[in-house]
Amino acid sequence: MATPTSGSSAEDGGEFYVCRCFFTNNFYLKDYNVHVVYRDDAQFGEDYKQVMKKYGCHTDNQWDQVLAQVKSELERRQNLFQQSLERRKQIRTEYRPLHPHVYTLQESFFAPEFLELVEMSRRSDTSPEDVMKFVTSKPDDRVYEFPVFTKQFCQQFMEEITHFEESNLPKGRPNTMNNYGILLNELGFDEGFVTPLRTDYLRPMCRLLYPDWGGDALDSHKAFVVTYKLGEDLDLSYHYDNAEVTLNVSLGKEFEEGSLYFRSMRQVVQSHPSYQEHRHRPTYGLLHRGQHKHGAMPIEEGERYNLIIWMRSSKVRNQLCPMCDQKPTLVRTVGFGDGFTKETKTVDVCCAS
Q1: DSSP string, 114-141
Q2: How does pLDDT run across 210-241, given as a tens digit for each residue?
Q3: Exposure class string for 300-321: b at 16+ Cβ within 10 A, else e
Q4: 325 is a domain residue
Q5: Closest Cα partner for 246 from 224, 231, 273, 268?
Q6: Domain holding 63: CATH number?
Q7: For 140-170, what is each residue's pLDDT tens digit?
């Protein structure tokens, strides 16, 4: 008989971690649209002072501003998880939801087509080819579109997000690339909404569509809402997600343009880059591999809300961190962290002395 010596997933109560590279890699400089690595001032100056001139950073004052921005981001990351925990506690105590029922996932929230797709995906005799009959995709890009929610749910969900945005409570933003948005775990959506959505509804279809990306073992997530409107965030720069599989659902409202575009997987170098464009349709979701590089074109009119769920498989990322391409060096954190776990080892207790 074997027994585990350490936990490994949210479902069995295990602990999650971040990779140490979270505190050094992929610092985004929005003014220059570039990601950088910062370990200390000497390394950063040697690696980037000349390089940044190609991006328009020519003066000493500009360089000082870049350095200050990087150090500010480092400080934010060092305090991120504790501050997020404090915000969540305050929100839980002080916030009064507009639509309390949307915090608990109900099948009435889903489009009938989505429920049919999920039911078929749950059957043991279903093949990937069967699933393909229920989704829309373009040749070879493995980006799948399908209805997810009802229009009524999307409207109430957006009203809830807007209600919270208009409150005076503190708000954690999803990442440094989006200035406007809400982290759903801080608002209280994880346990009753996002986790069952991932485990009971999305994982069955990911098992069939992305078996090579841990689709059958998506054991954590990061979920957030982003907004795009004139005068605020208009677009999203070309990037890849810190996820194995991503679901991006367009909730509404009325908007023009702002399509999502995909090029290659991040490991692929294209000599002649081309892209596939996917238009956002309210209530519809786009499911794609997190490492599939993509961006959002500028919105030209109106306002758009998107629900983003980065789904992670510790089975995949424990072998190679997608942000530094190294075996992850684990740093303990709170919540799901970045989805890393300590490898589960077994001991034969029948033979152990």
Answers
A1: HHHHHHHHHSTT--HHHHHTTSEE-TTT
A2: 999 999 999 999 999 988 764 554 445 667 89
A3: eeeebbbbbbbbbbbbbbbeeb
A4: yes
A5: 224
A6: 2.60.120.620
A7: 789 999 999 999 999 999 999 999 999 999 9
